[in-house]
Amino acid sequence: MKNALIIINEKGDTSLSKFPLLKELPLEAVRKLSFIFMDEALSEGFPVEKGYSIFLVNFSEKDKNDLSLRYNNFVKQLIVEGKTYPELIKNTVKQIGEYDSYLFVRSNIIPYTETQFNNFFERLETHDMVFGAFDEDEFFILGFNNEIKNIVQSLKEFTEESLETIAVSENLDIYYLPEKAVVTSLESLTELRQKLNNDSGLARKIDNLILEITRYHEDNLE
């Protein structure tokens, strides 16, 4: 199977999301957390077993990140235009070409592991789509196989309602993931941190960022 994992590089100042990452916090903190999540996604999702190719979708040239040599050999960075997520996904598929399955993941969530990504691709061998949302109206993961590519590209939005409608009309089998919480505030970032293993690198990075944000608030209250 030829599979494509596409990570959408979400940053606070360049995102199509109606749930902007850390919208209440300083832009520099947003950028740092965006990079932490994106870097962790590449690290956790690094295909040791070569089960899929990785693409990193950026909204513009200035959003591209300096990746380590380890990633540069396996991750292809793209600049893709789109005013909506359906447009972005349609243009991305057109740019990367033919694959058996496509799995789009937003970078502003706690990253999945290689094993989990491979499990999603295995799901796409028995299901037409994999879908997970922050709420009913915005996805954090969207996967589909090549056979229904044209159907997916015809959609104007990716919501549970629109997918349920198309599933009935086109007789599609969709695998739904549980909802995820999106980090939009210091409180939600702290809640996310509490769910992590204290010894993990991601936990330590978030601890440092929380400290930085707390100092920022203290300085601005003086």
UniProtKB/TrEMBL annotation:
<protein>
    <submittedName>
        <fullName>Uncharacterized protein</fullName>
    </submittedName>
</protein>
<dbReference type="InterPro" id="IPR029044">
    <property type="entry name" value="Nucleotide-diphossugar_trans"/>
</dbReference>
